[in-house]
Each structure stands twice: as C-alpha cells, then as structure tokens.
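Please check this protein record:
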Amino acid sequence: MKEPTAVDPALAREVQRQLAILMRGVVDCVAADDLARRLAAALAAGRPLRVKLGFDPTSSDLHVGHAVVLRKLRQFQDLGHHAIFIVGGATAMLGDPSGKDKTRPTLTREQVERNAQSYLEQAFKVVRREERYADGRAGEIEVRNNADWFLELRFADFIRLCSKMTVARMIERDNFTKRMKEGAPIGIHEFVYPLLQGQDSVEVKADVELGGTDQLFNLLVGRDLQADAGQPPQICMTMKVLPGLDGVQKMSKSLGNYVGLTFPPDEVFGKVMSVPDALIPLWVELLTDRFVAEQGEASLAAALASNPRETKAGVAESITAWLHGEQAAGEARMRFDRVFKEKDVSHDAPERVLPRAEVPEGKLWIVDLLCRLEFAASRSEARRLVQGNGVKLNGVVAADDKLEVDLREPVLLQAGKRRFAWVSVR
C-alpha cells in the first residue's frame, strides 16, 4: 500500500477537506495533529477510521440537542469512515456521573433494553444504517452492546481494570471535586464508570471517539486504557452544547425547551422559528449543512440583520428537511406563513382521531388531551399553558385547567401559536 507522504498533494488536499468538515462545531480535539496523521494514513491505505459513539439508554426520547454528536458521526460516515454505536447495556445500569451534581438512579436491564430500542430507532433518523466505504465496499453501521463483555466479566479481570486508575486521577474530574467540596455523596460505582466507558474503546479498537463536552474525561480515560493495551490511543472529539428554545438553559425535555426528533414537520418548523435570533448562528453551525452551503457562513450575520424572519425561516426549513425531507419542510413553511399572515389556522389544522376504546365517554381532561397530542411534554407544562391563556378551543381561550373537553364532535384545539389540530373521538 502507498504510504502517506508530505509531498503527496492530492492526499494533503483530501485530508484538509475532511478536517474542515470534521472540525466544524468541535470544542476539544485530543490530539488534533494525531487526527490529521491518522486520517492521512487511513486514506492512503484505503481503509476507514473506526469512529465510536457510545450512549446509555437512560431515556427513550431524543431531541436535536442529542443530534449534534449524531450528526458528527454521520459526517464521518459520509466521508467514508466506519461508525460504531456502543449501546450501554451495562453502563446505563450504573449511570454516567458526567455533569451530574448527584448520583444518578440505577436502571434495570429491562428498562435499559426497552429504551435502547427506541433510542436506536430515533438515532437512525440522523445516522445511516448502511455505509459505503472509500474503497467501494458496502456495510452496516456496527452496533455493539457493552453488556456482552461487562456482564460476563470475571471478578479478577474487574479488579485488574480498576487497578489502571488512581483515586487522585479520578477526583480531578470537575463534578467530583465540586461534590466533595459541597459534602455531597459520591458512590464508588461512579468512579468505575469512566473505566468501563474507556474499556469499550479497547474492545472495539476505536480510532476516534465522539461525545459532549461533559464527556471529555471519560474519552481521555479511553486513550489511557488503549495505550495500556498496546493500541494507538483514540482521538477524542467533543461537541458544542446546543442551547434550548429559551436561549438560556441546555436543551432538555424536562424543561420543555426542546425540539424532538419525532416531532411532526409543522412542530419542528414552528419551534425553530421561536429560537432567539442571537442563537441562530450556533443552530446553523451545529444542525445544518445545506443552509450554510447555500448562504455561506459569512453572509449569515448580514442576512439576519437585514431580514431576520426570512433568514430564520430558511434555517427552520433546512432543519425540518433534515428530519422529514424537502417536501414536508416546504409544506410546513407554507402553512406557517399562511397561519401567521392570515391568522387563520382552521383550514390548515391536521386531524387527530383518538380511539373510542381509549376515551369511552368521549370526554378528556384538557391537561391529558394536551399531553396525548404531544402539545405539552408533561402535565405540569400543560397546566402552565392553560393557566397562561395559551390554549384555545374553537377559537376561545380555555383558561380552566380542570376542564373536560367533549370530543364527540370535532374540536379545534390550539396550543400556543403553532400547535393546532382538529381533535375527535371515534
């Protein structure tokens, strides 16, 4: 095989092209020089890099904040590299202490397996199930479950793994130091977690591992364990955090400031339109490719200054198209424009039919109805929406959160400015 050399201009150009794509939105890259060298060696040898992304299925729903790192994995795929999903079938039962101010509750194996199935179904809206490598071979993304090696681990091997990390090194971790100063408890099992995540990298021989900024410590442990095992230490790449719709806090389902990967097109488009203008450049950087290609990053600030609504609509359409396709995104934009220009939602409202078996009397508590339609993420959010005069029934504000809605005839339900539907029971 041809070895990479500094005088190979075609190889050098391709390395730089890929690095420009892969470094976009990256906060930490340990080590960037090593990434360039390893990328050049892989391209020259006609083989893909092995790129690992692990996830603990502690919940079943994903939002576009989760998708930031998934999109980075997709970029590696699109450049011909091999993607490896590590399902934390064992580690999820422990709970990752990254960024946590208290010990996470443990999960049963059944809960983990149920969440993992839902997680993968949603993740594959972003990451390709099938891959085509640089040499023309076709294959599927590699999905591994760390329960396969950890739940059968012998006690002596577990002790040997624990011996590879010192307590002094472990308490260098920011959140452990903070909790110790505050007198908050730290479980011994939380010290074990980074070792288990690092051992995953040894098991799959990862060239690169991706994660959020709160994962850097765990990723670096993987480098140490790989070196100890005689493997080349992996490149650690962490991504920027996507702020939620409020522009203040990290995107979170519990805070209701999120865009779910399974939200319908109108909901995705409308929620992106509600993002503060100041955050749009970051959303563009982390969640779009097409918009940047069409507009150019340099012109984004000028476009936002001169015509913020149309610019934001272009971003919203791009993000909606990524999740639902070009046609659905275009139709969502037209409906959004019509609603806001004509102030009439009735002719654009989708029909939602609830089964008679689930609502035998044909009536439903308004809070439950909002949750059932996913117009609110929780009952508390639904109550706040009603109490804040944010819900209308047939065009009339419904301010009573104890109201039972009669659905034996179709009712036009509107929550906020962008969520509406004709609802009935059949």
